[in-house]
């Protein structure tokens, strides 16, 4: 059963005199990928560094699996895995030596290290490269090892900072699949600038702007954040525009192709249904009716205060 694995309460952080994060509250549940979005300088890294225990917050509390990170950092960190943007790889180590070193750093019990390393190698699809030097792996495989070091101690919560940065399209698909797979039995917080990545991997989104949380909800809610209130219809035997306007709730008509129209409407749920009924009763030959959605980029721009200035 799902439960809360990360709880952030009234989190604020100040560098010298400037507040980078102001009064952020959120929870993350125990499974699935949560996307952390925000423009440059929004406060994502600051937030991630605090919830990974790398940076101590000025105010507020972070609980990992119920353990207060500030008060019990060692116990809380047993359940945190972190893959920073710049991978902390020692290039002269073999994959297996490196993961063994990471397991020891993460205080995996001595008798369990071998098994923990074998599991991480297997899960991240790098077992066949266990004896290869890290410097001789491709970018995609180095990224897999980066993910393996984040899960080697089997934490309940993993933070990945821009994990597909610099990869080629095939490697991107593979790493995204791996992320989805490791999120089947743990929570993953994924920071990215790439909105298609969010669409491909995340079920929930948190967006930070100017240090404050401006959105927290499902991918679907994010998708529907701006209702463009337009329909696109294809009519085989269209009437004159005035007739289309006569349907209650239709506010504008724009012809975009010979049989295709974009109709502005009042946003009422019933209006598209009313339009479909009118098309049938008046024999306009309705072939297609699409309620248009905003793109993720438009939603991002709307939520980003900077872009609205
Ligand atoms: N060590 C620091 N000292 C002073 N100010 C900092 C420091 N680190 C970050 N800041 C400032 O805090 C704010 C938030 O920065 P942060 O790095 O958390 O944003 P970000 O969303 O991760 O941005 P990016 O996507 O560019 O990495 C910015 O205004 C940044 O300039």
Automatic annotation (TrEMBL):
The organism's place on the tree of life at top rank: Bacteria
Domain ABC transporter: start-end pairs: 6-235
MF terms in GO: ATP binding; ATP hydrolysis activity
Leader sequence segment: none
Keyword line: ATP-binding, Nucleotide-binding, Transport
UniProt xrefs under SUPFAM superfamilies: P-loop containing nucleoside triphosphate hydrolases (SSF52540)
SMART domains: AAA
Pfam families noted in UniProt: ABC_tran
Xref: PANTHER family: ABC TRANSPORTER, ATP-BINDING PROTEIN (PTHR43335:SF4)
Family: Belongs to the ABC transporter superfamily.
Protein name stated in the entry: ABC transporter related
